[in-house]
Amino acid sequence: MAQLSEIEWTDASWNPVTGCSKVSPGCKNCYAERMAKRLQAMGQRNYVKGFEVTTHERTLELPLQWKSRQDIFVNSMSDLFHKKVPLDFIEKVFDIMNRANWHRYQILTKRSARLLELSHHLPWAEHIWMGVSVETEKCVRRIDNLRKTGAHVKFLSLEPLLGPLPKLDLVGIDWVIVGGESGPDARLMLKEWVINIREQCLKAGVPFFFKQWGGVSKKRAGRLLEGRTWNEMPAPFRSMTAI
Q1: CA gap 186, 79 in Å, rounded
Q2: Closest Cα to residue 39, out of 27, 48, 29?
Q3: 239 φ/ψ angles, rounded to the nearest 5 degrees
Q4: Could you state, in order of their start, the residue ranges of all structural domains in the chain?
Q5: Is the pTM of this model over 0.90?
Q6: Alpha carbon distance 134, 176 (integer Å)
Q7: Is 72 in contact with 13 (CB distance < 8 Å)?
Q8: Has residue 238 got a pLDDT over 60?
Q9: Are 103 and 71 in contact (CB under 8 A)?
Q10: Which of the 8 DSSP states describes residue 228?
Q11: Contacts of 203 (CB under 8 A, 6+ apart)
Q12: Residue 197 backbone dihedrals phi, psi, to 5 degrees
């Protein structure tokens, strides 16, 4: 059975890699690091090394066992393009995604330079979506790297949004997700930043998904933006679960 996800834009998570390291401001309060330490304390076998980057061969074939179609977030507890993940292991992950092609896979990275470097080695297919995280203006270069990859569906995760992004280049981008930081010490996201990004998406004709306001209690803060939810997805690839 798939590991169900509470992330609003996906159904399940699959973690053939766990562990990561901080590369930009969005990493400061990493939820995956907190969770990994908790799982390590509980004795969970995949987290014996805590948040150290670790590959898990035995979990590779899990999507082949999940017979019902799922939107699957790949490596919610890591970054597939971390320098410590060997190319041959990344190729194994892509092999499984292509074999279990009844699912749709959503990969997200902050390491866009390595993504671009390895892109030509990878067998991209339409059901494998590739995204980059962009938290501040200093991270927008990741979008240019993503644009140059062989991915058929390219998306942005502007979460945790830590500042305004008034001049996004959305050419070649198929989907934009925006969300505030949640959990202890969550940093503030201003409403005007979100509205500005939504307006840029509307102007460019790019689907916009508002994930959450965040804060210490994200459920209480909710995900309404100006009185409504925004659950837009790339039009030809509508989510099986989106409302």
Answers
A1: 21
A2: 48
A3: -60, 145
A4: 3-13+62-237
A5: yes
A6: 10
A7: yes
A8: no
A9: yes
A10: B
A11: none
A12: -70, -40
Q: How far is 107 from 94, CA to CA, in rounded Å?
A: 11
Q: How many CA atoms lie within 13 A of 11 on its CB side?
A: 17
Task: Answer yes or no: are the C-beta atoms of 156 and 134 closer than 8 Å.
Answer: yes
Tokens for 131, please give them. Answer: 């995204």
Q: Tokens for 234, please give them.
A: 């790339």
Helix (H) or strand (E) run with residue 104 in it:
strand 104-109
**CB half-sphere exposure, 190, CA atoms < 13 A:** 8
Cα separation values, 137 from 2, 36, 99, 111, 212, Å: 36, 29, 37, 16, 20
Q: What is the pLDDT of residues 44-85, one digit of tens each?
A: 999 999 999 999 999 999 999 999 999 999 999 999 999 999
- The token duo for 187 is 């940093």
User: Distance between CA 99 and CA 84 in Å, rounded?
Assistant: 25
DSSP state of 168: -
Helix, strand or coil, per DSSP, at residue 107: strand
Residue 72 corresponds to which tokens in the numbers above?
Answer: 């699957």
* Residue whose structure tokens are 């939504």: 198
The two structure tokens encoding residue 207: 């689907």
Interatomic CA distance for residues 165 and 173, integer angstroms: 15
